[in-house]
From TrEMBL:
Upper taxonomic lineage: Bacteria, Pseudomonadati, Pseudomonadota, Alphaproteobacteria, Caulobacterales
Protein name: Glycosyl transferase family 1 domain-containing protein
Source species, domain of life: Bacteria
Length: 508
């Protein structure tokens, strides 16, 4: 068996100090724990009930007899089939969200009025953002965008309000929404009903002041309640940011049943009829249309790829829109130097280890090539996935540490970053971070703006499919992407202020 893999997959065993082989033989197999990545205890016992009835350790049977008899160590189904078997209906997810967030009591409206009134003239120029969660307490690409926008406005003397649902929710809502968390200049003030927030803002904000807003995400919000709040508080000019495709469908990544890219077929199509998100597609499209058309919002998108897809699928071809990249490569810097390569190609996965970002494809690479002396594998992100055959380097990108991922990539001497997103990325920060670190980007044809960036000049390759990816490693063709072969250099990254960028904020 693979003791390192067993420890990584079973942190409780690792923490206990127990010998992995002894634990598996005594307890692990009875608990359904797998001894190696390529063998499934549950699959083997389900495939061969004679072994289950005999009470035999399935892995030992396979080693001693089953392998020679042609018995399979695990079900021969692909990742898509495995994922399909675990699919949950959307209503189950919504019911779980409702149970997770019991009804909370809102704060008294007057408390918000007092907090706002105390600022007086400082609120004569206010910019309000709306997103799906507390952007100042959570980590992610969209949250960083909101933080950067607020920081850029603060530098201009503009006060920043942020509204988010206290109860995170996987879709738009139709019930008025839950309580809204309110933050002022990054400081949490409390949570109130949407109607109370609108009334308090109308009362506290000085008349004649400038008021603008940016919608970054409406997940967890009722669009009708958001519209009423904005109009009550006197916010008439705003923009809509296209960070994902929630404005087209409840499946924000445009993946049918969370499995494969759907390409945003026409609403009401047969493809939507069989997708778990199909019944809520109209809710999302109509809810966003209500706000975009009702306020005459300009749509801001981080890439031409995202804008083209959105124009085609939204039915809003005449809405004003423009492309504003979230970041760009800057000048070459010699402040960072990668370690010597030692003749090994270092291959990395960046960010959250989730299926739609290509994590399972990276796992397949590790399983097939971790024993190959030509390659070394590493995961970089906020938390390690505990997977054998690869290293882990912590990289926590934040408003204070915007180059954390780039610096970690350089420090690890990464040659190649696998950014094999299965969905159309609207921007693809990881690809830009990899390029800034001097790493080459390997991606597939469905990755949206990641593929577009590589085709436009970022170092790397857009491969036809997974077979081409594995062939590149098998033949060694991927070795041509090493840092030394390309003469890789480290570069700075320049970040956008988003709505606070020059010429973007709406209104006089």
């Amino acid at each position: 068996m693979d003791p390192d893999w067993y420890r990584a997959m079973n942190p409780d065993v690792a923490a206990s100090g127990a010998d992995p082989a002894d634990h598996f033989l005594r307890h692990g197999w009875r608990e359904g724990r797998d001894p190696i990545a390529g063998f499934s205890v549950r699959d083997y016992l389900e495939l061969y009930p004679d072994i289950a009835e005999a009470g035999i350790n399935p892995f030992l049977h396979w080693l001693k007899a089953g392998k020679a008899e042609g018995r399979l160590p695990r079900r021969e189904i692909g990742r898509t089939a495995r994922a399909a078997a675990l699919l949950e209906p959307l209503q189950v997810r919504l019911d779980r969200a409702a149970r997770r967030w019991p009804q909370a009591r809102p704060a008294v409206r007057e408390a918000l009025c007092r907090r706002l009134a105390a600022l007086g003239p400082a609120l004569s120029d206010v910019h309000l953002t709306v997103s799906h969660d507390d952007a100042f307490r959570n980590v992610g690409g969209l949250q960083l965008c909101v933080q950067r926008e607020h920081a850029a406005f603060a530098a201009q003397g503009v006060s920043g309000l942020h509204l988010h649902p206290v109860d995170t929710w996987p879709t738009l809502r139709e019930d008025g929404g839950g309580l809204l968390g309110v933050a002022l200049n990054g400081e949490a003030l409390g949570a109130w009903a949407a109607a109370d927030v609108g009334a308090a803002l109308a009362e506290a904000l000085p008349s004649g002041g400038r008021r603008t807003f940016a919608l970054h995400s409406l997940l967890g919000h009722d669009p009708a309640a958001v519209e009423t709040l904005l109009r009550t508080a006197g916010f008439a000019r705003g923009v809509f940011w296209l960070h994902d495709f929630a404005s087209l469908c409840a499946g924000v990544h445009l993946m049918r049943d969370d499995l494969v890219d759907c390409g945003a077929p026409p609403a009401g199509s047969a493809a939507c009829g069989v997708c778990l998100y199909g019944q809520r597609r109209a809710l999302h499209a109509e809810g966003h249309r209500r706000l975009i058309e009702g306020f005459g919002l300009e749509v801001l998108t981080p890439s031409q790829v995202a804008l083209d897809l959105w124009r085609r699928a939204s039915g809003l071809a005449e809405v004003p829109a423009r492309v504003l990249p979230l970041a760009a490569l800057g000048e070459v810097t010699d402040a960072l130097e990668p370690p010597a390569s030692e003749g090994v190609l270092r291959v990395a996965f960046l960010g959250a280890p989730v299926p739609h970002k290509g994590w399972e494809i990276f796992q397949d690479l590790v399983r097939r090539f971790s024993g190959d002396p030509r390659y070394a594998f590493v995961q970089l992100g906020a938390q390690g996935a505990g997977y054998a055959g690869m290293g882990f380097v912590e990289a926590r990108v934040s408003a204070d540490q915007p180059h954390a991922m780039r610096n970690a990539l350089v420090g690890a001497g990464v040659d190649v970053a696998l950014t094999w997103s299965l969905c159309a990325e609207t921007f693809g920060f990881t690809a830009l971070e990899a390029a800034a670190a001097g790493a080459a980007v390997l991606t597939g044809p469905d990755s949206g703006n990641i593929a577009a960036q590589v085709k436009a000049g970022l170092p790397g390759r857009v491969l036809e499919d997974e077979s081409a990816l594995f062939a590149a490693f098998e033949t060694g063709e991927v070795l041509s992407l090493s840092r030394s072969a390309r003469g890789a250099r480290v570069r700075d990254m320049v970040f956008s202020g988003l709505t606070a960028a020059p010429g973007v904020r709406p209104g006089p």
